[in-house]
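[audit] Reproducing an earlier prediction to check determinism. Same input, same settings, fresh worker. If the tokens differ from the archived copy the diff job will pick it up downstream; this log only records the rerun itself.
[audit] input (334 residues):
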Amino acid sequence: MKFGKFDVDGAGGAILAHSIQTPNGRMRKGIVIGADDIATLKSAGITSVTAALLEHGDVHENDAAQHFAQAICPDPQAVGLSLTAPFTGRVNIIADGPGVVQLDAARLIAANSVDPMISVATVPEFQQMTTGGLVATIKIISYGVPQVKLDQACDLARDSIRLSAPNLRSADLIISDTEGGAGDKGKEAIVARLDMLGVTLNSVQMVAHDAESIAAAITSSQADLVMILSGSATSDWADVAPTAVSQAGGDVHRFGMPVDPGNLLFLGSIGSKPVIGLPGCARSPALNGADWVLSRVVCGLDVTDADFAQMAIGGLLKEIPTRPQPRRLKSRTK
């Protein structure tokens, strides 16, 4: 591609790099200069323009963006995504419904390394999406790129972005309460989280904060997912709520996570039914570790110990000045 100043008489077929105001109106950047445009420029007394001229083997920005996007998502509908029409070298990848983004990060990084003019930017892996959410944007930064570079980037990035849709459709919420406890505070925040994932809350059971009462509520659940919000924070594998899961015939696979807020979550199952022990911070609508686990579980993704370990990077979600152990000491003055 040649870029620079062109005499107006020799600018036919070039792409205008900067908008120009003429007596006939604004000639916008990005247009392919034709005979009428040349006549307009000359009548305005303009003798040269800054433009880009594609050479043999170059691909126009819009065609390149569309080709790159189709390589990243060869069958968008099959993976819960849609591609927008290319415009100014950009194609957006949009979520067709709620779900969790899955990326082949290594392939995307490799594709982004081919040529700085060929780029794709994404949300973080496992980002929870709602319908219409922007998952990724493909941008051809220059007005055209060499076909050989585009082909290389497409081969590297092929089939590297998908959306895992929810496959659990219903949930039961068990809230244990203690004397003077929080009661059902936070129920609305949890309902909102489920709504965003397209999950119906079948029932909310308020029970005493003891293993036997919680276990009975778990056993009676007919939903795809059981969520437990304890009246007192879980502080050990042998605490009340994890013990209740065991008494109901289930297993607790994980207690604790390196995400703050959200440390005190536990994850278990009864047969194939997942059970999530929510941390107290789930009573708030603010983002916390439970959101990361809930969205993956609802979308049928395994959450392994290795997955929990990776959550540590970026897992410090916010400062909470009211914590019992302040993370930053206040300065003292005499």
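[audit] rerun output stored. Observation attached for the diff report: The chain has three domains: 2-53, 58-164, 170-310.
[audit] end
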